[in-house]
Design a protein that fits this description.
Blueprint lengths: L15 E5 L4 E4 L1 H7 L3 H5 L3 H4 L4 H13 L3 E9 L6 E10 L6 E8 H48 L4 H25 L8 E3 L1 H15 L4 E6 L7 E3 L1 H19 L3 E15 L2 E13 L27 H11 L3 E7 L2 E9 L7
Parallel strand pairs: 7-9
Antiparallel strand pairs: 1-2, 1-5, 3-4, 4-5, 6-8, 9-10, 10-12, 11-12
Length: about 350
């Protein structure tokens, strides 16, 4: 059980530890558990210096802060976790918190996490701009499109005795129909959706079946599920579309030959769309394809951006829109041989975006 006087620190997004002058840990908050991938009971069994591989700068910072009775700051400190071996680049702040100088509050702010939060804020703003652009563009196209289709149908009727010309009206009608489908997809994120309990693994199995039916030879879809995950409160059809769009992109990058991993995990104490959530779904879709081209990485979620001549550039835009409507986030990492899209969705009734 946490010490009552430190209970408020559990709500912080920043990983926080409290230790004494001997570097024995007295308290760790959930964000710190998440950072170090260990539970509080296990962490409290170790001293501060035992959590990381030998780092004289860390011990010196603690001693200096307690001796001088003032905060000590390191703007960029590299720590290597003893348990996982992971390398952490953090901004370190150590602050004495009692009059006797016996306890110190240690803040570990991962530098990559700060960058991630900034990128998420930028993505939210860009998504809002994209949404307005798509809505306006779709309505501008939709209004004259009906007139074009109607005129083509009337012309087709007038040319009933000229079959050699009907081919042209059929082209007009078919292309207008195709544009109508495109407009409907553009407007889809702005329509109302129905929420209910959703098992994410049912969603993944549906998408897996579709992908394997389309590419029965050469494509491997591997399951890596955490079956203990709770139900999501979500629109099932929208989630299917999110996963299907990402998987389709992966299949096309692989040209139907390769391996895709569908992975589910739980993320704890995570901030999504400016809200703090105790539990969230971490869904990862990983492929071993050539990776995303460098020239479109910064704009991959923008509408009409695609790396394929036959692509529409709407799949990831719609996926991002649906994820944001559920109060979640979507991000990716890509290099030759591995591309990983990560979808984060909060559990619970307050998950609406």
């Amino acid at each position: 059980m946490p010490i009552p006087s430190f209970a408020g620190l559990e709500l912080l997004d920043t990983p926080v530890l409290i230790c004494d002058a001997d570097a024995a840990l007295r308290f760790v908050n959930p964000a710190c558990e998440n950072l170090l991938a260990l539970g509080s009971r296990e962490l409290l069994r170790h001293g501060l210096t035992e959590l990381f591989q030998p780092c004289p700068a860390l011990r010196q910072a603690l001693d200096t802060a307690l001796r001088q009775g003032a905060s000590y700051i390191e703007h960029d400190l590299e720590l290597q976790a003893q348990h996982s071996g992971a390398t952490l680049h953090v901004a370190l702040t150590i602050t004495p918190i009692d009059a006797d100088g016996g306890l110190a509050l240690i803040e570990l702010r991962p530098l990559d996490q700060q960058l991630k939060i900034a990128n998420e804020e930028r993505a939210l703003l860009q998504h809002q701009a994209n949404r307005e652009l798509i809505r306006n563009l779709a309505h501008e196209i939709k209004n004259p499109l009906g007139g074009i289709r109607g005129a083509a149908q009337l012309l087709d009727h007038e040319l009933a005795d000229r079959p050699e010309l009907k081919e042209y009206t059929e082209v007009i009608t078919e292309e207008a129909r195709r544009l109508q489908t495109l407009v409907d997809r553009l407007l889809a994120p702005h329509r109302s959706h129905s929420r209910g309990p959703v098992n994410i693994h049912e969603v993944l199995e549906r998408v897996r079946s579709i992908a394997l039916a389309q590419h029965p030879q050469g494509l491997t879809l591997t399951r890596d599920y955490d079956t203990s995950l709770p139900m999501l409160s979500a629109d099932k059809e929208q989630l299917i579309q999110v996963v299907l769009n990402i998987v389709n992109n992966a299949v096309q990058a692989l040209r139907g030959q390769g391996r895709i991993v569908l992975r589910t995990r739980v993320a704890r104490q995570i901030t999504l769309a400016r809200k703090r959530h105790q539990l969230a779904l971490k869904l990862q879709i990983v492929d071993d394809g050539p990776g995303i081209p460098d020239d479109i990485r910064e704009h991959i979620f923008y509408p009409l951006v695609t790396g394929r001549a036959e692509g529409t550039g709407l799949g990831l835009t719609l996926a991002q829109a649906f994820v944001h409507q559920h109060g979640g986030g979507i991000e990716f990492e890509s290099r030759p041989g591995q591309t990983c899209f990560t979808v984060l969705l909060p559990f619970g009734p307050d998950a609406a975006g």
